[in-house]
Amino acid sequence: MTVELERLVDLDRYPIDRPDDPTYRRVVDAARQGLRSVGCAVIQSLVRPEAVVSLNDEIVANKGTTHFSTQSMNPYFHTEVNADFPERHPVNTFSERSSGFIPGDSWLADGPTNSLFRSPLLARFIADCLEEDELHCYADPLAGLTANILDPGHVFAWHFDTNDFAVTVLVQESDEGGLFEYSPGIRSAEDENFDGIQAVLDGGRDGVTTLQLRPGDLQIFRGRHSLHRVTRVPSGSRPRHAAIFAYTREPGVIGRVTRTRQLFGRVLQEHLDAEVARVRSDALID
């Protein structure tokens, strides 16, 4: 039996079970405004404090299955120099990504994390915020439901997502560092904007926003066109834990082989089969 939604979400403050409630509409309208203007919406303390503890307990219990890796990568998750581009160029600018991911096949089906992720009411709420007709739980057996782990010393470099949007719940914040930063809409499907991206990679702060997320906050983020990172968690700090809930517009979507291997250290037959049939949605580098 899955965990009941009312034990996980503050349904009085966020009545995601009652979409006709005026409070529901106010929350959705505010999220839409944020997503339209800066590609990001934060629903503060959506998850109850006691449920946050349960989510973190489950992450700690599953931490032994985490795939940790350290790479020097560009914002497109590539790790090798590309001679087709100049030396000072985003494609050839590499930064450290050191973090871990708990894979989707680690979670208990009836545990709190999976119960929240697979709640049809939560999926509908997120779809409403994104102004989508409907959303489906990402069918990828490894990347559908994950947790990102930044232990002391870890950092997640500037990058773009391959999907149009991401949904995360901060479960445990680090004592210092571990801040989410992003440059909204820095590129588009029609314009890679390499100069603007390089300026941020070189340390420029124009247009960069820093979020002070708290445990229980749900973040909806359009990461395909917004450069983003998580700053380094200092030595001596407690780890940063974030649950990642992936949804897709169409059912049955499976992730890319290269990115899956980077993040989880392995691929399954489902990934190999899907790669053969894959069709790209845009012409961006990645």
Strand ordering within the main sheet: 1-10-7-12-5-3-2
Tell me the Rg in angstroms.
18 Å
User: Largest sheet, described in full?
Assistant: 7 strands, antiparallel
Structural classification? alpha+beta
Count of discrete structural domains: 1
Number of strands: 13
CATH evolutionary superfamily: q2cbj1_9rhob like domain
Question: Number of helical segments?
Answer: 7
State the gist of this model.
With 286 residues, this protein is of the alpha+beta class. The chain contains 7 helices and 13 strands. Strands 1-10-7-12-5-3-2 form a 7-stranded antiparallel beta sheet.
Give an overview in words.
The protein is an alpha+beta fold and 286 residues long. It has one domain (5-277): Sandwich (Jelly Rolls). Helix content is 26%, strand content 21%. It has seven helices and 13 strands. Strands 1-10-7-12-5-3-2 form a seven-stranded antiparallel β-sheet. Strands 6-11-8-9 form a four-stranded antiparallel β-sheet, with helices on one face. Strands 4-13 form a two-stranded antiparallel ribbon. Helix 1 packs across helix 4. The protein is globular. It starts with 21 loop residues before the first helix and ends in a 9-residue tail after the last helix. The model has no long low-confidence stretch (mean pLDDT 95).
